[in-house]
Amino acid sequence: MRLAVIGGVAAGLSAAARARRLDPSLEITVLERGPTVSHGACGLPYFVEGIIRSADQLVTYDAAYFKRERNIEVRAGVTVAQIEHGRRQVRLEGGEIVRYDRLVIATGAAGSKGIQGTEAPHVFSLHTPADAVRLRDFLVSSKPRRGVVIGSGYIGLEAVEALRVHGVRVTLMDHCGCVLGRPDDHLVSVVKKHLERFGVEVDLTRNVAGASELPADVVVVAAGMRPNVDLAAEAGIELGRSGAIRTDERMETNLNGIYAAGDCTESRHIVTGQPVWIPLGTTANKMGRVAGANAAGGRERFPGVCGTSVVRVCGLGIAFTGLCVSDARAAGFEPVSVRIEARDRAGYFQPRPVSVELIADRRSRRLVGGTVIEERNPIGRINVLATALAGRMTVEDLLNLDLAYAPPYAPVWDAVLVAAQQLAHQL
Q1: pLDDT exceeds cutoff 90 at 118
Q2: CA-based diameter of the chain, in Å?
Q3: β-pairing, 367-374 with 316-322?
Q4: Contact of 374 with 310, CB cutoff 8 Å
C-alpha cells in the first residue's frame, strides 16, 4: 500500500513516522514544498536573537536520515499542484504524478495576503530557517536602528525581543486589540506595560496595509496567519467553521482515505466541545501521529485541545490554557474569575512574583481556564491547570490536589492552590 504525505514539517513527518512504525511494508512518500524538512519553527526567533548559533540546529532530521533509518522517501523542494482523489494521485508542478492509496494533508499555515510590500528588502517573515538566516544577516550587516513588528502573536512577541537584542528600537503593531489571540484586557495591559518598560512602543489598534511604507529600517511580518487549505478545498475536502480542514476524531476528512493534521486542520476544544483552529507545534505533532496511525490501518483518536501555550516576552513568562472570561461567556458558561499575586518559592529563597488567574463556571463549578505569569518558569503551574481541564476538574478538585513543596521550588501553599481557594469562596 502507498501512503503519500503532503507537508514535511511537524505533522507530516510525525504521520509518516507513525505509519512506518505500524506498517513496515508501507511505501511512504513525503512531499515538502520548502527546501528543508523537520525544522523547528518555534526556534526561529531565538536563532535571530543569537541564542541558537547555527541554523542547522533548527533542523532535527534531514531527508537522508528518513530514507536511511525509516525507509521513508522525503522529497523537498517539490510543490503539489493538485490532488486528484478519484484517481488516487497528486500532480506536482511540472506534471509529475505521485500515486497513493492513502493520503495525509499537512500543509500547515500560510501568511496573510492582506499586507502589501512584503517583497521589499528590509521586510521579513519568520516561517522557515532560511527566513531566519536572512533576517539575522540583515540585522548584523545593516545594523538597523528602527524596527516594526506586525503581529502580537507568539512569533511577533518573540521577534520583538530578538530585534531588541540587536539594538533595534521596536514598535509592535496589530489591529486586533489583543495579544496572543486572547481577548483579555488584563493580559493586554500586562504585556503592554512590560514591553514599554523595555522601550518598546505598542500600538494594538493599527491596521497595517503596506509593510514597506512604515517608518522603519527593518520590518518583521508575523500577522494574519491562516490555515493553508487551498489545495484541499480544490479537491473537495470540507472546511470547518474555523476555515481549517474539518476531520473526525480519527483525523479523516470527508473524502475516504484522506487524512489531515497540523496547522491546516481544526480540532475540538475539550472545554467547549466546539471546533477551533489553534495552530501549535505540540498539537501538530499529536495530530500527525493519529493521522499516520489511522492511514496505516490503526484505530486511534485525537481527543482535542485546550490551547495550552507559553511564551517569553522580554524575560517574562506568560502561559495560559483553556478560555479567558470573554471567551467563556461567549461559549455559554457563567464565568467567575479570580486573580492573585503570590511568590514562586519560599520567602528565604529569593522569591519572585507570580500571578495566577483562574476561571470557573458558576453553575458546574468546573474549571474552564487559567493564566500564569511569572519570570522564572510558568510551565509547571500551567501544566497543572491544563491537566485539570483535561480531567474536567471542579475548583474543589483543583484545591485538593497534592502538589509538591520544597523551599527552593515552591511555597507551602502554591499560587495555584491559593487562587483555587479564593475562587471557591466566590462560587
Answers
A1: no
A2: 70
A3: antiparallel
A4: no
Give the Cα separation of 83 and 233 in Å (integer): 10
- Provide the H-helix boundaries in 62-184: 63-70, 129-142, 154-165
Instruction: Read off the DSSP letter of residue 51.
Output: S
Average pLDDT over every residue of 318-332? 97
Rounded Cα–Cα distance for residues 72 and 25 (Å): 11
Tell me the backbone φ, ψ of residue 70, rounded to 5 degrees.
Answer: -120, -5
Secondary element (H or E) of residue 11: helix 10-22
Q: Which amino acid is at 333?
A: F
pLDDT tens for residues 60-88?
888 899 999 999 999 999 999 999 999 99
CA–CA separation, 373 vs 405, rounded Å? 19
Q: Which residues contact 96 (CB under 8 A, 6 or more apart)?
A: none
N residues, the chain: 427
Per DSSP, helices labelled H in 166-280 are 185-197, 230-234
Q: Which residue has the cell 518555534?
A: 42
Inform me whether the pLDDT recorded for 113 exceeds 80. no
- Identify the band that residue 366 occupies on the pLDDT scale cut at 50, 70 and 90: very high
- List phi, psi (to 5°) of 107: -85, 0
- Residue-wise pLDDT for 371-391, tens only, equals 999 998 899 999 999 999 999
Q: How far apart are CA 145 and CA 160, in angstroms?
A: 13
Which of 42, 176, 264, 306 is flagged as catalytic? 42
**Rounded Cα–Cα distance for residues 237 and 249 (Å):** 16
Place of cell 539575522: 136
Q: Which three cell numbers stand for residue 149?
A: 513588528
Is residue 20's pLDDT more than 80? yes
Give the model's pLDDT for residue 163. 97
Instruction: Check: CB of residue 81 under 8 Å from CB of residue 233.
Output: no
Q: Which of 201-205, 208-212, 399-403, 411-415 has the lowest mean pLDDT?
A: 208-212
Question: Is 264 assigned a catalytic role?
Answer: no
Number of H-type helices and E-type strands within the chain? 12, 22
Going by pLDDT thresholds of 50, 70 and 90, the confidence category of residue 41 is: confident
Please answer whether residues 345 and 323 qualify as being in contact, where contact means their C-beta atoms are separated by less than 8 angstroms.
no
**pLDDT for res 40:** 78
